[in-house]
Amino acid sequence: MNTINGIMLKDMLQSGANNLNNKHAEIDALNVFPVPDGDTGTNMSMTFTNGVKEVMQAGNDDLSVVAKTLSKGLLMGARGNSGVILSQIFRGFYQGIDSKQEVTAIDLAEAFMNGSRVAYKAVMRPVEGTILTVIRESSEMAQIYANENPESTPLEYLTVLCNEAKKSLDSTPELLPVLKEVGVVDSGGAGLLLVLEGFKAALEGNPIAASEETGTVQNTAAMEMENEGFGYCTEFIVRLNNESLKTFKEEKLRKSLAQLGESIVVVQDEEIVKVHVHTLTPGDALNLAQRYGEFVKLKIENMQEQHNTITQGAESPAKAPVSNEKKKYAIIAVAAGDGLKALFEEYRVDKVISGGQTMNPSTEDFVAAIRELNAEHIFILPNNSNIILAAQQAKDVLENENIHVLATKSIPQGLSACIMFNPETEIEDNLAEMEAAIAHVKTGQVTYAIKDTTFEGLAISEGDYMGIFEKDIVIATKDKLESTFRLLDKMIDGDSEIITLLVGEDVSDDEVSQVEDYIASTFDVEVDTQKGNQPVYSFIIGVE
Known about the structure:
This protein has 544 residues and is an alpha/beta fold.
């Protein structure tokens, strides 16, 4: 077999997607920080599955069309930095084989080399020891092999590519000291290797099949939705009955909903429970929730219809969204938790995309939000370093829109940017003021460790509460409040004036009072406490 055609490429793509999906939890576990948000494997799997789903639904066996459809599907479905980089690799891959009906080993070598080049260009400050290194080193060495062996087959080429990718991956801890200290290889590079090994298995005649057990039930449901359709965005508010008021547990409802779908948010505020879930069976979700009380509000939207509208629009991005009067400005922000959503809306944010550490929004999520708005200038506040690339990719998709992605890496940065926004001033002044505000915010977070590890000499045990100051874990103890106090000690200095305290869904009123009392008795600063109801992080702290 000296060439690959479109049908064979589709088999390779399905095998690669299955291999990545089957082992996504292993990739998630490679997270350097021991926090409950290691989602590289999930992001890459959802990204690649979206691309393959588009290929299969298109029903076209032309090689060039298959590669183009994959590229577009990856572009729109990209989640997190790893997902965006993966989409760029295969964007370059498509460019390398465009218009070809069959490809040789030499053609594949050039396509993957171009994928490496395109991926590097997509990242403003490429970091070695990551997925970028793995694709660059492996494609370079495999191209040398292909050029020296012009009669080699695609399978022989892919065997070399996989071997070189494995060597490069194993060397990533030597390039990134933090990987070496924690004792892991780069997660993005590991995910890429799974895709390539899936390709190779298909060419060997042993394609990887989808496993019945792909990690968490929630991610299995997500993958089913990606393969079978986008399902329904289901949101509702339930008022608990007297019996449920005594027995209701948020976690129990989350686990039940996880068997029906993904993107789950459950927040209780006394007798009111607010729920968000993406599911193929919204009726089942409603029946489940109705056991606890009566509905106050319901909203069900068909995401497949939304997706069709978006992807059709992406083909002609100049098409203006339907709306009445065009506003001068609109703001999009990313946040998880009803409290944070309400806070951003209070600060004049027009659209809050649900997401954050544990569920990074896709490029398509941003495109959908942008198309809902009709504004001359649109600001995007990703509020997480792992979401910035997806937001920037949405800007590239809608290149005729005036989209400004502000590199907010935390919720406090996003809130500060909103505070400095002035709808009456010109765009240049707004950008300058908002970017200056971002630069003056220090961010801290308190969360729990999901595994034993050592980070920069600090021993961390599973279940410890960690205080994270920017990118550094500065304290880890068994006591949530102790970790919060020590984190505040690290963050607040003589120049600090205002503390923003965003309270998570797991924090009691008494714990909030103790933190406020500690700040008042220890520091000369003002405190603005807000109930963010965010998951994962007990406290998010902004210091200005």
